[in-house]
Amino acid sequence: MNDADRRDGERYRVSDEERERFRADGWVHLRGVVSPAELALIEADYQRFLAREIAVAGKDFCDMSGDYDKPVESFAILNVMLPRRYHPAWQGNVYERRAHSIAEQLCGAGMALDYDQLLAKRPRRPDAVFAWHQDLAYWPTDTPDTRTATCWLALDDSTPENGCMRFVSGTQKEPLRPHRPLHGDRSKSHTLVTDLVKGDRVSLARIARGDITVHDERVLHGSGGNSSDGWRRAYIVAFRSAATVAEERRRGFTHSHNDAAQVIDAVGFARPS
Q1: Domains and their CATH numbers in the chain
Q2: pTM as predicted
Q3: H or E segment and range at residue 260
Q4: Where are the alpha helices (DSSP H) in 57-137?
Q5: What digits encode the pLDDT tens for the residues 236-258?
Q6: Engineered SS bond to 164: which of 37, 158, 188, 263, CB 3.0-4.6 Å?
């Protein structure tokens, strides 16, 4: 089946083999989820975010490799949190709808969009490294339903040279590793980091423009710097169970970097303060 045949309006057909790979490895590569024409429309607004033509408040526009006080011109990894909040026209776009169908095929019914995010690595920035982490370290760990499908769309071919995603398959089955703030203080930088351990085997996720990876909240992942002459741009939409999203919001947890600062407790979990 070619990519066009797998796209069916708002749906994308996930194979049994891909569902098994997601279950076993904690992540899966899906090809051709967004067509070239659809991606061109997304890309036009994406560039408006990067040019700051769409206003993003406070720390929701930041550098995920640095601290909040760096000037924008020096950002290595431009991060936009919750772009659909700042550009409502994106709400319900074809990528969101198709990713929702993928999340329910991989995780079951009752999945809801939790947050969205843009991550763009500048050209010729080998320091544009996204540290090893597990997404669960960034949010409350005691919610009732742990199903998660984080969809990562490539707007550029994603390669080892420009900082493609890297995963340690199977780590979603292990306990959450201790995490620490990259710059020592969560009020200075949102970024958390953990460490590889003996026996970890890293897989590089080389994917093409229009492809996505989907990963679980516990699988260990990160990405390398960008030594290429072009951008490496990604558009993330993350789905969790509707009950978990509702519980997060009840606690005031929205994934915005402008929310109350998060703290790291004694066992290394990130929780809202």
Answers
A1: 3-272 (2.60.120.620)
A2: 0.93
A3: none
A4: 83-86, 94-107
A5: 999 999 999 999 999 999 999 99
A6: 158
